[in-house]
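Dear support,

I submitted the protein below through the web form. The confirmation email said the job was done, but the results page showed an empty box. After a refresh the structure appeared. I'm attaching both so you can tell me whether what I see now is the final result or a partial one.
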Amino acid sequence: MKIGLIGVGNLGGAIAKRLVEGGFELVACDIDESARKKALGVGAKVAESPKEVARLCDITLMALPFPSDVENVVAGQDGLLAGARPGFIIIDMSTVGPSTSKKNAALAAEKKAEYLDSPVLGRPGSCGQWTLPVGGKKDVIDKCRPILETLAKSVVHVGDLGSGNIVKLLNNMMFAVINATTAEILALAAKVGMNQRLVFETIAESGAATVSKLFVEVGSKIVKGDFDPVFSVDLMWKDLDVGLAMAREVNAPVIVTRNAQIINEMARSNGLGKMDTSAVIKILEKF
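What the results page shows now:
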């Protein structure tokens, strides 16, 4: 069975490597030349368009940055549905809203193709140990389990189509708040005359209930002054934008997340968008 992959960036590169190592024949596609070389380097074949991938493969995964990218890859002139046959399965591992998945699934159904949303809980570097919350039909998920379980230690059917998107957005909303709070307390520590590193290490090693793995990761980058992106401010902003839109659709007040997004917006407006999310401390230190 040939497996397709659209998007061989940071996340998609990890997926490609893991699938090839797992014995799958992989056909990848990306608009970026360096990403295509990355795919070839791990042993995948490269196709010229999503349409060609769909013609060659039974199941295709997507790992793309923006909802507009996902919609174009699925329904564009040279998109997956242009080459899809009945029974073709699309698994979207991107971070998008449930409305995007439902819209694309309806288009797929017109081609008698199936659609799952299976965004990633975990960093690219921990591929193989991820948790994948999956939304969609159980029988379709079962067909795809050998692929998904190659990428994750836990594959959880969380509900109908779009449910995986919801879990991912909720997770990233919490991520943004922890990220902002970590930056805020370390900026304040310096302001009141404490050594940032000492404060961070004391709390991180304390075993206190406030300590999370994310606090340790973000705080460590801050005290080292290492803002190379593991996950960029721009991507965090995008995920929160989608999450806040989801909340607006159901008239849900999300006060804490909205404030975290304001900090992200300030960081982006000050040219920090390509840096790691921990770089928001630069804005808090400034003010």
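Response: this is the final, complete result; the empty box was a page-load delay. Residues 9 and 127 are 14 Å apart (CA to CA).
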